[in-house]
Hints:
The complex is a heterodimer. Chain A is mainly alpha-helical.
Amino acid sequence: MANHAEALAPVFVPVARDRVALALAGVALLALVALPWALGGGASALARAIGGDGAYWPLLAAAVALAYAAWRGHDRASAAICAVALAWAFVHAFALGKTGPSFGIGAALTLGVLTAGLARSVARRGAFHGDATVATIVVVIAALLLVFIFFPVGKSLVAALFDAQGRFAPGLAAERLLSPDVWGLGCLSGGTRCGVAVNSALLATIVGLGSTAIGLVLALVVQRGGSRYSGVTRLMSILPIITPPFVLALALVVLFGRTGVVTGWLSDWFGIPRSRWLYGLPGVTIAQLLTFSPIAFMLLLGALQAISPALEEAAQTLRASRWRVFRTVTWPLLRPALANAFLLGFVESLADFGNPIVLAGNYEVLSTKIFFAVAGAQHDPGRAAALATVLLGLTLVAFWLQQRWIGRRSYVTVSGKGDGGIPAPLPRAVWLGCFGFAAAWIVFTLACYGIILAGGFVKDIGRGDMALHLGHFASGFGIDFSGGAPRFTGSAWNSLFTTIEVAAVAAPLTAAVGLLSAYVITRHDFAGRRAFEFLTMVSFAIPGTVIGVAYIVAFNVAPLELTGGMAILVLCFVFRNMPVGVRAGVAALAQIDKTLDEASSTLRASTVRTLTRVILPLLKPAIVATLVFSFTHAMTAVSAVIFLATAKYNLATVYIIGRVEAGEYPLAIAYSSVLIVFMLAVLLAVQAAVGEARLGRRSAAALTVGHS
Amino acid sequence: MTRKVSGEVVFEGVTKRYGDVRAVDDVSFRVADGELVTLLGPSGCGKTTTLRMVAGLEAVSQGRVLIGGEDVTLRAANERNVSMVFQSYALFPHMTVLENVCYGPVSMRASKDAARELAAAKLAMLGLTGFEKRLPSELSGGQQQRVAVARSLVLEPAVLLFDEPLSNLDAKLRRRVREEIRELQQQLQLTVLYVTHDQEEALAVSDTVIVMDAGRIAQQGTPQELYEAPNSRFLADFIGDANLIDGELTVTAAGASFAAGGVAAPVRAHGAKSGPATLALRPHELRVVAAGEGVLEGVCRRAAYLGSRVEYVVATPWGELLAFDGDVRGRRARDEAVGIAFDPRAAILVPRQETGNR
Ligand SMILES: Nc1ncnc2c1ncn2[C@@H]1O[C@H](COP(=O)(O)OP(=O)(O)O)[C@@H](O)[C@H]1O
Ligand SMILES: [Mg+2]
């Protein structure tokens, strides 16, 4: 049988000429002619070219050529023009480096349009099954990830190879990476201290084990106790979302610090001497357990609920004792989720910055040590980069183990539901033990939150001075109504407004980038799909501190000079929180039958129309969830942005950390309580608006991961 | 209503590979304009894949697809003049019936009013007037299916594709809906490609049936041709039940006879030549008679009374034969010695080598 001449091309090729490419060429021309090329305004590319800088002529020529090629429908030529122009723009800019201008609005628009044009024209030649929209989404997002995740992280890791004067120093790098400061095991043999990596790993192991155990106990009580304890579930699903990660550390200081409330009672009533026992491993451990055990709880509750009571009943009808049922049925089914909870706790603890910065004292951990290497008196970016490499390595090993051992198995259970039946009761003694512990832990958690919420209203809770006092709110959040229009005179307003603004800008961008990625990953098959999926998820595994260092190292010089502005904060949030949107989108899209897309395209709808008319309306719950989570994440994040915030663009969390370091606990606590109440209000308002069911608990568990 | 465009569909040596699997393997066929052609075959034989390649939902690995004489092999789904009724109906759950049906015209940039008018006409044609404002979830299965058909028809596509359209309906509705589809097709002179795994459904609605097996076309023809002259064991067995007997055909000037297990019986050769042959006998063509009165002797192994007929299993020198006998009053008992009789014209000689019709 005669085969078609184009047997090589199992793809679709568009018939009509690409009007969008023409529009793109127009936008590029406009940007080159009318918009300032560089950061901070100034001349457009055209003006620069006329002014004598010949390097801009090729770009202008390319834009004109692109318009012509698009007009004539020469896709191959369009692709070549875009690729060459992009390469030229980057090579030229990076060749000039520090001495050249930094990309501004004109450059960003031109480069973005050229990237999209490249994607479209390549797709129209057959790549991406001929779907220009999919190609644009994939290529543009991949390019953004390369620029805003891989480039900075790569550049900062390479920085570990250079000394403080910028000379190549591999020996120094080896020394930094392997020094006893990092890996020393002195503490085990008594005497000197351990290395910072060992400290971090030890803390992470304890916290991983502890939060898993606490999560399991709480989950058992809630699951076996029935709907009576659903309040606990609600509490645990909401708390991690609305709590900035240092708040529990603050609460512990206020309760158990040397001048803390509880310490005072113990000293007055029992004569237990005041001490600084809290600062160091014990305090950080407790704070992290409080912070991260809700995540383990949600994960394990999901797993327990997925274990069908019918299974346990089946075992019981086979005359197995309760204990035997637990050992032979429940436990093996639970094991992957336990391992998962442990590894997540481990990773969270490694990445955590907020608790150690408040409580670690002399117990050095990687995340804070990295920060001080950059921000402290030493200012040694090379050393910070080396430590970041170690932290990233530890984290990746943990994630690798998680994927390797558990993979997706335990994720499946998170969404699972029991199919009726009543869970077998626990053995009495076990139940009582669990119940008692769970109750105590919940009371403890509530006490911590209570002290934060109440602490701002007394004179100096840090020193036990409990006189009612509104001065902290006044100094932080004072409003002066005297001159007609209110003036926000409080010292916290600036950072609060910036935070809300940044979070509000970042949230829709995060949702867009995340959900579009999820759409192409789940709905389209193209070469490199798995690689693209990996790209979109990778920032999940990178601790915030590492990203922070990376951004500082990579984005403080031309042509990508972003530090000091608000854009870098937004970008940081978007690309750090993007995996949240991807996950929410993938989960939601799995619920939407793919034949709906297909029906849409057989009804002659373009991919864009399918996306906007069919997919997006059905994705509404995922969109809302992603908006809410990325907003609250942005409001509560510390670890990355503490490197990036400036006096002008300060963020709430960074401001609070600053107050803590200055010893101004009352203001820090007052501000924390404002943040918590604000976010709770946002969350409840959204829930009321879209209905509780839509913000599935499952997403809460999955999404709080990677929060630091 | 007049149709402007030809809906002729031509497959030329089309192959679809998924990795190493050939879901569709070098398939060629032609659907004439205004014809209803069924793709029939067991589950997993490549019917849906074939249909999706017509729609442009799957890319062709090799070969050509032509619609209305035009090569559309490299056209995406939304650039083909083809509509599909999905097995799950794929109605947009967030749109009303009217919005669903208007979706196609609006995609084609029709004005809102024009789209409404087109949609209303199709809804009326399918008896759905009055349901415009409902959501799909507020309709019964049968109504949902009609909406799906209306939505596909509204663009007046050159070709209409159905993928197992009856599989989500209950048994009572099936017969009615398939008749409605056939009626609509004839009334509008639609070109329809219809996928089913149910041979009765295929025989009932089609002008032509294409039987597929393991990604290839096993045979194609009118329902009658397939039933009366299957070209392989697979087909004889798949279209209606058949007793398949391997033996030896002897054709002489006086007539033909078929021998197996040492017993010969007269058959009609239909042009077959002497030599090894396979005989297919439909169960309802066999009569169970008293011992000595038939062409074959046997023992009744099982007799199941079904009201309108008796289903026998009879052990004979030709093996165990299944026979449906309408003579319910003269029912034979188990282990009774019986004879088997059949009209020589009912004998179907199946070619020994299984060759696909390609
Ligand atoms: N997307 C796919 N990837 C891999 N194999 C597939 C895919 N779709 C179908 N197949 C395989 O192709 C064969 C034909 O499938 P299909 O056309 O759906 O069969 P039918 O509709 O006749 O039941 C089956 O073996 C099926 O497993
Ligand atoms: Mg099928």
